Amino acid sequence: MKSNTEIVAMLNKVLTSELTSINQYFLHARIYKNWGFSQLNDKCYKKSILDMKQADKLIERILFLEGLPNLQQLGQLSIGEETPEMLNCDYHFQLTQRTTIQQAIALCESQQDYVSRDMLSDILEGEEEHIDWIETQQYQLEQLGLEKYLQAQL
């Protein structure tokens, strides 16, 4: 099924964001694991796997639309050196990613590509849930202080 090249380009932009997210969350997970923070490791690792599954859906959709998925492009990773910085890097990345997905949804809606729109809406829901999780972690950090927060993550 041949699709609008603008939609394929936007799906590739979301794909680039997902591929970047896989790498950022996977590296953060391994850093947390190295430090012994198993709860943070588990959350970031699961997020990287979810992003991999979302990237797979995007690749399949782009191919279905007779486009070429761009797996060569990767955005800049934001890697923190301490837990609060890592959470902030992930938070700002998620906000940017959410905006990209919202723009893609709007384009699909305007071009009446409702299947792509629905797929992107599902992805957006997952990203917003993760934003909420990060905001919760930031709140806990603020309320508990770094030492108590990290102790709870062991």
TrEMBL record:
Cofactor list: heme b
UniProt GO cellular component terms: cytosol
EC category: oxidoreductase
The keyword Oxidoreductase is annotated on this UniProt entry: no
One GO MF term: ferroxidase activity
Amino-acid positions noted as binding heme b in the UniProt annotation, renumbered to this chain: M52
Keywords: Heme, Iron, Iron storage, Metal-binding
InterPro entries attached to this UniProt entry: Bacterioferritin, Ferritin-like, Ferritin-like_diiron, Ferritin-like_SF, Ferritin_DPS_dom
Residue ranges annotated for the Ferritin-like diiron domain, each copy included: 1-145
Binding site for Fe cation 2: E127, H130
E.C. number: 1.16.3.1
GO biological process: intracellular iron ion homeostasis; iron ion transport
Pfam family for this entry, one: Ferritin
Binding residues annotated for Fe cation 1, in chain numbering: E18, E127
Gene3D superfamilies documented for this protein: 1.20.1260.10
Catalytic activity, as annotated: Fe(2+)(in) = Fe(2+)(out); 4 Fe(2+) + O2 + 4 H(+) = 4 Fe(3+) + 2 H2O
CDD domains: Bacterioferritin
Coiled-coil features, chain-numbered ranges: none
Family from the record: Belongs to the bacterioferritin family.
Physiological role: Iron-storage protein, whose ferroxidase center binds Fe(2+), oxidizes it using dioxygen to Fe(3+), and participates in the subsequent Fe(3+) oxide mineral core formation within the central cavity of the BFR protein shell.
NCBIfam families documented for this protein: bfr
Protein name: Bacterioferritin
